[in-house]
């Protein structure tokens, strides 16, 4: 019995590689949205945490990821990094953000270090030092929120 009755499948033959390369090149030209940019930014943060990127490299690549327009742009940013790279397969649908308005590339709230600072302030200086430390932390959090909002507006 011949399993190829209708002819060879479209993936077989001498032009199969050219078709696959052409499909990947076409996928690289697809426009991307915030979900794809956020996924790559999150992957870059992970690689930074594993020591694969320096802080200046992370900043440079995040800037490029936030301004990327196509899948090819994002692929260039992650070309020398192992998985995860934040890029889904060309045919898949983009992932939705877990929390709309809070992209994944932002740092998580540094609760552990802040709690440690407040505990040290309480032990070292008593209640007055704790109150001052809380005020400093609140000022820094407000400044960070304002700065990140201004940066988001600059890139949109």
TrEMBL record:
Sequence segments annotated as region (Disordered): 73-106
Zinc keyword on record: no
Matches recorded under Pfam families: DUF1707
Domain of life: Bacteria
Name of protein: DUF1707 domain-containing protein
Domain DUF1707 residues, every copy: 30-82
InterPro entries documented for this protein: DUF1707_SHOCT-like
Bias type Basic and acidic residues, positions: 73-83
Keyword Membrane: yes
PANTHER family tied to this protein: DUF1707 DOMAIN-CONTAINING PROTEIN, MEMBRANE PROTEIN-RELATED
Entry keywords, A to Z: Membrane, Transmembrane, Transmembrane helix
Organism field: Actinomadura craniellae
Listed Basic residues bias regions: 94-106
Membrane-spanning segments: 114-147
């Amino acid at each position: 019995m011949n399993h190829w009755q209708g002819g060879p499948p479209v993936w077989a033959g001498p032009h199969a590689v050219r078709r696959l390369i052409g499909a990947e090149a076409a996928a690289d030209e697809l426009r991307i949205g915030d979900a794809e940019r956020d996924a790559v930014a999150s992957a870059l943060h992970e690689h930074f945490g594993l020591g694969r990127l320096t802080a200046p490299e992370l900043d440079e690549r995040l800037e490029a990821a936030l301004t990327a327009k196509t899948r090819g742009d994002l692929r260039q940013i992650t070309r020398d990094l192992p998985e995860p790279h934040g890029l889904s397969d060309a045919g898949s649908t983009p992932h939705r953000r877990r929390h709309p308005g809070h992209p994944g590339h932002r740092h998580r709230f540094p609760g552990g270090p802040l709690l440690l600072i407040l505990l040290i302030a309480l032990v070292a200086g008593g209640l007055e030092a704790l109150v001052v430390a809380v005020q400093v932390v609140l000022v820094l959090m407000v400044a960070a929120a304002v700065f990140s909002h201004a940066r988001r507006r600059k890139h949109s």
